[in-house]
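re: the backbone from monday

yeah here it is again, tokenized this time
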């Protein structure tokens, strides 16, 4: 890649964000630890009956992952705003929407990819049938980046708020409901041997739409927040 080109700038930004995240490895482990603790508590609360646990396993894992993602969203742009890096990104010759998209990708790798890796373990602990396991992973692979993109818009909109964490949760939870419904519907259909492609296709369509529009909306919201 040519130094100073757009691909080189995106690669450098991705490498920077991943390096900074690796230096704060405890922050990476927190969502995973939260998901493990919450999923582990369900068998103690509901009892060890395999049929009951298998029926709720998909929904429990999906909701747990959604709540774990909420824990890390608040810090998506905060560090860059506080140390002045966001002003430098706005002054860069590369499109701000593209750079913001790279930052969202880095955040997804750090916060959501470990959850996708640990999700089959949690699902097997809750007795999810093996045929539904690939569907669960597929729905998580589509729904987690979609939630990160939607959350990034709200993080950018609340960048100037002192209580952005509570405000972010209140705004993002209604947007999570359709995602969880489609994802849980696909897993439930796979458990019952029914067609599950349609809900996954809807999640994929939503992800494609968010990939196009979310970085543009984030860039516009960040410009407004930085100018105010």
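seq for it, each position gets an aa:
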């Amino acid at each position: 890649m040519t130094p100073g080109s757009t691909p080189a700038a995106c690669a450098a930004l991705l490498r920077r964000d991943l390096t900074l995240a690796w230096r704060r490895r405890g922050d990476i482990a927190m969502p995973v630890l939260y998901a493990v603790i919450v999923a582990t508590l369900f068998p103690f609360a509901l009892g060890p009956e395999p049929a009951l646990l298998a029926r709720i396993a998909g929904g429990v894992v999906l909701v747990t992952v959604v709540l774990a993602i909420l824990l890390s969203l608040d810090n998506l742009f905060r560090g860059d705003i506080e140390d002045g890096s966001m002003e430098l990104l706005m002054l860069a010759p590369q499109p701000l929407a593209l750079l913001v998209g790279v930052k969202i990708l880095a955040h997804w790798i750090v916060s959501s990819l470990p959850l996708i890796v640990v999700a089959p373990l949690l699902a097997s602990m809750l007795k999810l049938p093996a045929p539904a396991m690939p569907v669960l992973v597929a729905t998580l692979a589509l729904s987690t980046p979609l939630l990160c993109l939607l959350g990034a818009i709200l993080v950018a909109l609340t960048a100037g708020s002192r209580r952005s964490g509570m405000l972010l949760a209140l705004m993002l939870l209604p947007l999570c409901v359709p995602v969880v419904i489609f994802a849980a519907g696909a897993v439930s259909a796979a458990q019952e041997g029914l067609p599950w492609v349609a809900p996954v296709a809807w999640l994929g369509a939503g992800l494609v739409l968010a990939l196009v529009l979310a970085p543009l909306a984030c860039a516009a919201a960040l410009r407004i927040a930085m100018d105010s």
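The two ends are 36 Å apart (CA to CA). The chain has a mean pLDDT of 85.
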